[in-house]
Amino acid sequence: MTLPPPHPLRPLRLSSMPPGILPLLAAAHRKARERGWRCFLVGGSVRDLLLGLEQKDVDVSVVGDGVALAELTARETGATPATTGRFGTATLLSAEAGVCLDFVTARKETYPFPGALPVVEAGTLADDLARRDFTINALAVPIDAGGFGSLVDPHGGLADLEARLVRVLHSRSFRDDPTRIFRAVKLSERLGFTVEHGTLDLIRQAVREGALATISTERAVRELLLIMEEPNAGAMLRRLDGLGALAAVDPELAWKRRPEDVRPLELEQPDLSPQQRRNTCLAAIAADYAGDPQGAEALARRLHLQANAVRLMRDAAQLAQILPRLGEGEMQPSEIYRLLHGLDIEAIAAYGRLATAEQSPLAHQRLTLYLTTLRHVKPQLKGDYLHSLGIEPGPVYGRAMSALRDALLDGVVQSSEDERRFLHAWLPAGGLPAD
Ligand code: CTP
């Protein structure tokens, strides 16, 4: 993973936004003005714009009605309204720009008790910035006709961006919303920033005092899965493990990879899709359950992962046990097939990436061979050919077909004529089933 090099902050210019977004922002501004509302670019968008980073989602805060403004903007521009969220939030999808525009009604949030979902009411821009997680996410710029107005920075976000620090706005932040523990580590690792030392103390204190037990496992795991999609997820998980934040989600959840295991994993990851990165992380966690697929499955279930991720972790634990065998000595393709057949394809693919990371080129090669070639090998002759020979249907059909597939995999037979010859030789004279 190559972190963005430290660079001076960029001027806030509309021209730095993805081009397809500009008509949407212009329409939002026009519609807001007609109704006497104001709209601002906020949060991660301002942060990333100042850092000169690519915009994934564009956050717009509306002092007025965010959902209504999203609808009006969609009608005016033909953009697709994607979703409407809990309170005053709506998302527009710009296919052209390949980004989402998130509208939120400027709001004030109060937490009735630690870890609770906040009670939300409409508020001012100042309220909307004060409810946020970190100073570098509490910046706003007004969207004006043809450009941006001046930066609104009530919490010293610009200075922290310059100093490359992740800092909370107040000391209750992690108690109010413990998911910010994950977000602080994610953001600092992603940007190459430091978690400001007072903020780090607050994280340690929140973990020690059991803040993560005040939120549901689902909420914590949602953040963890987002982290697993990041290019340098390994470093993030290692840090969270060191802070005790993984064990606070589940006592068995750990990131035991050593830095030298993680490094190649990170180096490989930029080419992967977010989902492939997540699968690789889940497989890496499950690798600690080598030979105990039930243990990995139980952990995945306690984390409320979806069925495909549960399967992936279970089979990754099985693969962790098979890996040493795959990584040494001579092996016929049919043997590779038998070892891997029936295991989850995503787990095998994730393990192919881990096997390289663990310097097992042979295992990597064999896993890749299985994924790209061996699993697709099928005889041309089917059971009806055996039927035509007058063989009674029964278990012998399965055995004959597996023997034929093994012969194909190992290159013993190639053409359909070879297949026929092989079957005749395999079946004893008179077509009796062979054992
Ligand atoms: N936010 C917050 N507390 C949270 C989640 C979000 O204060 N627990 C605020 C932050 O101001 C954040 C904004 O909501 O910038 C948008 O949230 P999100 O899209 O999750 O974060 P981004 O900062 O945009 O980060 P990313 O680049 O990962 O999308």
Helix content: 40-55%
Q: Strand order within the widest sheet?
A: 3-4-5-2-1-8-9
Give the end-to-end Cα distance, rounded to a whole number of Å. Answer: 54 Å
Most strands sheet:
7 strands, mixed
Give a count of the beta strands, DSSP E runs of length 2 or more.
11
Bound small molecules, by name, code or SMILES, are: cytidine-5'-triphosphate
Which structural class fits the helix and strand makeup? Answer: alpha+beta
Number of helices: 21
User: What is the global morphology?
Assistant: elongated
Estimate what percentage of residues fall within beta strands.
5-15%
Overall pLDDT score: 89
Radius of gyration: 28 Å
Poorly predicted residue ranges: 1-5
Describe the structure.
Helices cover 51% and strands 11% of the residues. Mean pLDDT is 89; it is low at 1-5. It is elongated. The strands form 3 sheets. The chain has a 7-stranded mixed beta sheet with strand order 3-4-5-2-1-8-9. The chain is α+β, with helices and mostly antiparallel strands and 435 residues long. The protein is built from 21 helices and 11 strands. Helix 7 packs parallel to helix 9 and helix 20 packs across helix 21 (416-426). The longest helix has 20 residues, at 307-326. Bound molecules: cytidine-5'-triphosphate. The site of cytidine-5'-triphosphate has 12 residues, from helix 2, strand 2 and helix 7. Residues 43-44, 56-57, 59, 132-133, 137, 177, 179-180, 183 line the site of cytidine-5'-triphosphate.
